[in-house]
Write a structure and sequence with these properties.
single chain, mainly alpha, 7 helices, about 75% helix, about 0% strand, globular
Length: about 220
């Protein structure tokens, strides 16, 4: 019965994601300035939001591990960082696809793009570092310190468009957007979040299984 429930939850999340993006493509009107090319933002923006959320989960989990040395906190930190890296990579790729027709280039050293790329590389390095330390306790302590330090770049990414001259637009307020666009964006964000949460829980399950093997001396 539990297996059937899990399958239904996963299927529901996928269906929700498909419906949300169908709505964004078919119901939301074209943008007055960008036309239909702006629709890529219905995935790009939720991916960026989701990445910040899961990096925040990893950050607080790292703090908990430093204070309490709880194994679960270390596993949450690792899983949150991994899902955040996937979503950041997605946001960067889609941002590049959007930038080509709008800005005329695939990539520019815009403050937000640059800080986001650095964030992606930092957390990728964090995940690689974890693989290089076989001892779980030592790995957890070192990774927690690194995880706290590299999270400092998250607010820098968010504030970069306000601190420096940037091609990237400042966050829009609801008053400046068509209500149907706002609804579509929020719908897509909720749908991507539901799928991301499933990925997070699955990654957490795998991390627990691997830790159990390590404790029994069967895995590395």
């Amino acid at each position: 019965m539990a297996r059937i429930v899990k399958i239904l939850i996963r299927l529901g999340a996928v269906v929700f994601l498909a419906f949300a993006h169908y709505w964004a493509l078919r119901v939301a009107p074209p943008d007055r300035m960008m036309g239909d090319v702006y629709r890529i933002l219905f995935v790009h923006v939720p991916a960026a939001w989701g990445a910040m959320l899961f990096f925040t989960v990893s950050f607080f989990s790292s703090l908990v591990y430093l204070v309490r040395r709880k194994r679960t906190a270390d596993l949450w930190a690792e899983s949150g960082a991994e899902v955040g890296v996937v979503l950041t990579g997605l946001a960067l790729a889609l941002g590049s696809l959007w930038g080509r027709p709008v800005w005329g280039v695939w990539w520019t050293w815009d403050p937000r793009l640059t800080t986001t790329a650095l964030l992606f590389l930092m957390y990728l390095g964090y995940l690689i570092l974890r693989r290089q330390i076989p001892d779980p306790e030592k790995r957890g302590a070192i990774a927690a310190v690194v995880g706290v330090l590299i999270f400092l770049n998250v607010p820098i990414v968010y504030l970069s468009v306000k601190w420096w001259r940037s091609l990237h637009q400042v966050q829009s307020s609801p008053e400046t957007m068509e209500p149907s666009m706002i609804f579509s964006l929020r719908l897509c964000a909720a749908a991507l979040l539901s799928v991301s949460l499933l990925l997070f829980w699955e990654r957490l399950r795998l991390a627990r299984a691997r830790r159990e093997l390590e404790e029994r001396g069967e895995g590395g």
